[in-house]
Amino acid sequence: MKDEKSTARSLQSADTERRNAADVEDGRAGSGAALNPVLHEAASDRATAPTARVGTGIRVLKRNMKRNGSRGCVTRKTRFGSRERDWLKGDAQRGCVCLYGASEPQPPASGPQTSTTPQPDLKLVLCSTNTTAEELCAQRDVQGLYLQLHGDLIRRLDPSERPLQMVYDYLTAMGYEDPLRVQQEAANSDLSCMIRFYSEKPVNADQQERTLLKGVFSVRKGKTQLHKWAERQVILCGTCLIVASVKDSLTGKMHILPLVGGKVEEVKRRQHCLMFSSAGPQAQTYYVNFDTLADYQRWHRQASKVVSQTISLVDLSCYSLEEVPEYLFYCQDVTHLNLRHNFMRLDGPGGLSNFNRFAQLKSLNLSHNGLGVFPESVCEILTLTELYLSCNGLSAIPARVDNLQSLQTLCLDGNRLDSLPEELGSLVQLCSLGLSFNDFPQIPSVVERLCALDKLAMAGNRVETLDLCCLLRMSHIKSIDLRLNGLRCVKSETLEPVKHLTQLDLRDNRLTSVDLSAACSLETLQCQRNQLGSLTLSGFTLRTLHANNNRLTTVNIYPVPNQLTHMDLSRNLLEYLPDWVCDSRKIEVLDVSHNLLSEIPARLLSSMSLRKLLAGNNRLERLADLLDHIPLETLDLQHNKLRELPECFFYKALNLKYLNVSANALETIPPSSQSEESLSTLQELYLTRNNLNENCAALLVGHQNLRVLHMAYNQLLSFPASKLSKLEVLEELNLSGNKLKTIPSTVSSCKRLHTLIAHSNHISVFPEVLNLPEIKLVDVSCNEQTEILLPDSLPSTLQELDLTGNSSLMLEHKTLNLFSHISTLKLDQKPAVTAGDAQGTSTLWDHGYAEMCGQRNKLCVSVLAVDHFGDSPEAAYGIFDGDRNEEVSRLLQCTMGDVLAEEIQHSSVDSVYMCNTFLTSHRKLGMAGQKLGASALLCYIHHESSEPGSYFSLTVANVGTCQAVLCRDGQPLALSKVFSLEQSAEEMERVKLAKAIITEDNKVSGVTCCSRLLGCSYLFPWVLPKPWVHTEPLCSQDEFLILGNKALFQKVSYQEAVSTVLAVRDPRAAAKKLCTLAQSYGCRDNVGAVVVALHIGEDSCTCEPPLLTAEARGPPAPTPLPISVSPGDPATPSSSSGIASEFNSEMSASEVGSEAGSTASDEHPSSGPTARPERRCSLHPAATLCNMGPLVSLGPGAHPALFQRQPSSATFSSNQSDNGLDSDDEAPLEGVISNGSKLEVEVDIHCCAFQLRSGPPESPKDLDGRHDLRGSDYPNSKMRRQNSVVVSATNGCLLAVCGREISDLKKSPSTSSLFGKKLSNGSVVALEDSHNIIEVALEAPKKKSGYFAAPAQQDPEDQLIIPPSLEQDVREQLRGQSPVVPGPPPPSTPPSARDPNWDHPHPTVPGLHPTTVLQQDVYDTAL
Questions:
Q1: Strands 273-277 and 285-289
Q2: Please, where are the H alpha helices in 1065-1163?
Q3: What is the CA angle 987-989-995, rounded to 5?
Q4: Is the pTM value of this prediction over 0.70?
Q5: Is 1128 exposed, middle or buried (0-12, 13-18, 19+ CB in 10 A)?
Q6: With left for phi above 0 and alpha for psi between -120 and 50, is residue 718 left, alpha or beta?
Q7: What is the pLDDT of residues 122-179, one digit of tens each?
């Protein structure tokens, strides 16, 4: 009490108040006092702190907060000081809650936000898990607290709810297990994008406009001049315009004008005046004169929507309403009222208890309102014909429901019902009843009394037995949905036919056999994804049968189903087709793929009704001859054993438009016609992976309507030029994986060609396709290109050009200029071979990747690939699939490596750091992850830290449908788990228990088929970000690792993928082949693949902890020269390192940062026993890099072509606070600039892209005089970022700069591309061997003389090239710095190799001695 009185007396001064409040808080935290709520307010919008309110044992602390301008989120960590940390350390049940003010809530994730958007008033509340909303409201003197989840709806908290406990429960449900980590995450302001609290209900102007418009304006009634203008209160609510007295708007006289079907028109003779007219012969008219243009536009916009309606519908869904506006009850013509996704209450003027005031209401939707109990007041609305009460947590239906005698549709899906009242049977007009996703153990008996009911939906219940005798008593029901019930048996003991049932859905159950021969009127049966071994049906009226994904060996249907039009029997065990299939007269679509068929009956092929036949993945060896012309339009015969097609095939199947015979053994194809004139209508032809030669290409001439031709991976030595010119309408041509030496020049005759894929050949001359008007994609990677002859200008349509894998390719400056507009340009980096490599040091792994966008306009798959991860022999690989969005996959690509590198410092338990990596990445998606999501798979190759002499292990974590397969002894070993509802019974059950609505296409709420994703947080708790984690020890029998997205493994089996890679060996070519095969097998979506070749033998090196004792510092032996940072700051990828996709050039790095939050990890480094120790390989001694102040080590884990935690969309982040301060307790660091969540380091360097060459040797004396790393002021090399070494990914060059100079380098127009490379529709650029200086040069400023400001150098291989104009600047900039890199003695340089333009020795960075490199052609730039 003394402390309270002292604090109260000190409130006269704001400064005195802050000091005393801080003292009180420190005393409480230090003594571990009782968990009374402590409010810490950080009011960033106030210049001076208001007077604190002294309450019952609660102290108020004020502190200004800094924002990062990132969509309303406050800057991370700047709000936390030592006092706040002490409070959290006191107890794991303590924490903090961010309270936002009543400003407008955050915009939708898809909407851009400008810097002028008002920031919400944010206050930080330190409290405990026992603190209730009522206690916080009493202290804040507010009416209530409000909760917003995922930037969506906002609801009022009950007084007894505990906000901090809600946050902890939310994080635990996400997947966090450690209480301390939960406490730490709860204190993170980034969490506000998922869960946010408001002290007052935010006001959304747009939402308010659509709910109610109200104002006092000049009004005149009627079209004549008899009436005068008068001030009246005008209300637009629901379907009516209400004109009332200014003083007594609710009790006085009102004029109500129904607007549905009426008119709203502009009155031109008066400014800002509208005329409102009702419909019908008794139409009335009112003129309203508005004061401002804004009011005029707002009322005109809303009224126009109302008058355009055909029914009197009021849609107030998703408005976070607790009650409807009272004026809505005056709209007596309302017939349809939609209030789904609100928080409607019973009481109040606009509550549900007053809804009986609607005299004509027919349809009422109250789904997703969290009612908890059935609102009995609804039973008084006797006019209702439709009532929707889904997802309200209802456990019982009241008997009063029998009042609703007019009810025709009742939807009770997604509740907790297990029985229905008998009174429901009196609803004689009820024809549709929805009971899906409840807890019914059987079909309710009351259904038998509903004589008008014809549709019963009971999916997702617990019905295990279906008795046909029960259905006999329900003679009125025609359609029953029983999917996802766990059905085990269908009893058919009765001989009496079930005549009324026409549609039955038994999908996704546990049935082993089904006999529905008694259902003689059955028209549609869906029984896929069961365990059916036999199926017996009646064929009298059967029209559609879906029985795929079972174990069927035969299907018995009697009599012959002559009405059958569509049948799917794919993925079963059929060895032959029943005779009744051939006898069926009307069958149009037949899918029998993925069976064991050895032949297709000739009668079936000759059917005059069959339009589409899918028979791929069987054992067909021949195709029967066609006896007559057939109407077949689509034929898929891929993955069989066909050696030939019938000779008459094409001229008997004249209607054929699609043919896929890939993955067979064809050696030739039949001619298109018997004469020179062909009537072929074939448009798509897939011949990939056969044994076709160039003679077959000549037979394609007759197919003059051919648009798509795939002949990849055959035996083509050439393609006849004269024949190619005949394919004039060809749009897509794939000739990859053959032995072609050239693409005929006649390809220029294919004027509609937009895609040419010809990788993995022997092509040395670039095809003449760049003059085609519609060309979009050209892929000639993995060939023997030496030069490219280009026209004067390239077509503007060209979006992607892939030239990787052409080791001899030389590009001139003119070529680079012409490539400037291409959004995705893929070129090789010229790899620099280090001295360590020259000595024979083996590479433990290397990778290749491929991404193809298919028929989509954008690429939604991104790849992460780091062969050298951290400072020890480690690697990280990942693949991310956004399905139909590219934002989330690219953000994950930029951030996930950083997060992993940080998490492995906090824990050495694989399941812990991998799980936390996914959960933290999920949080860092910010607002982009609210509505969008992506599948993610991450692989981490490492030593077991607990066993210094251990072999390597592979830890795999994934969510969604991306998969990883390891080849061990030539056999596939699956390492991931597919989180798809169709493929995981466990996940299906979890989602059902959470009362999610699973639509008929097996998607959660109709959005995604995945039960676990990163992003899509608005689907929580049904869709979670917690990954599956598996660790597999690697051995010498492990040959390679394949990572792929859903589209890849849907078309390519594990075994085929492994066999494909074994046959190719080269990782990049293998990845290309996998994607090409998937496309040729029918994949039309984005497809991505990563192949990691493993070279881990029993003699592979192992790593051991570094020696910490000082040793003699003589000249080190020639070693690789990678750049690495300390374990607290390991090497990780970012968008500028070549790992990130080429983002859209219109999107800045700051925008990406604001979307994803801070992409470098924010958490404090762990110093406890669980931190991963720094490891060094005994076979790869680390060099030492010296610089001013703290030093950076050179370890074997990094790579010369890798930025180490560079700023871009993945920005620098301090391990302390964002501005280099620990709250108000420390001084700022020199050279560090804080702009919110990003931390930038200043740079001033002029030539940022140059190649290191050998320099003069260094004397041992100089080496001894250096400041060694082990003498650093920072233990464990965990240093701050004032000084750092960045390795450029442009051309393998080493760029040594002071860390404080980097932000200037980012701001420079000539170098900003290094830190934020973004091109549209691009794919990832691998660090080590795919990123080229050309990609960086594309972002350089365009000049008349080209991209390169420096004069061209003749032989830049052996020198450190610095343009003469910048020589003096570089000298001055680097003068006085201590030597940077010790290196081996240089080789002798022949005089002929010196640059003739420089008659004096080349200036070099003092003390900078690069490693030796192979002689190669490298384009050097001064950006």
A1: antiparallel
A2: 1067-1080, 1149-1156
A3: 110
A4: yes
A5: buried
A6: beta
A7: 888 888 999 999 999 888 788 889 999 998 899 999 999 999 999 999 999 999 999 9
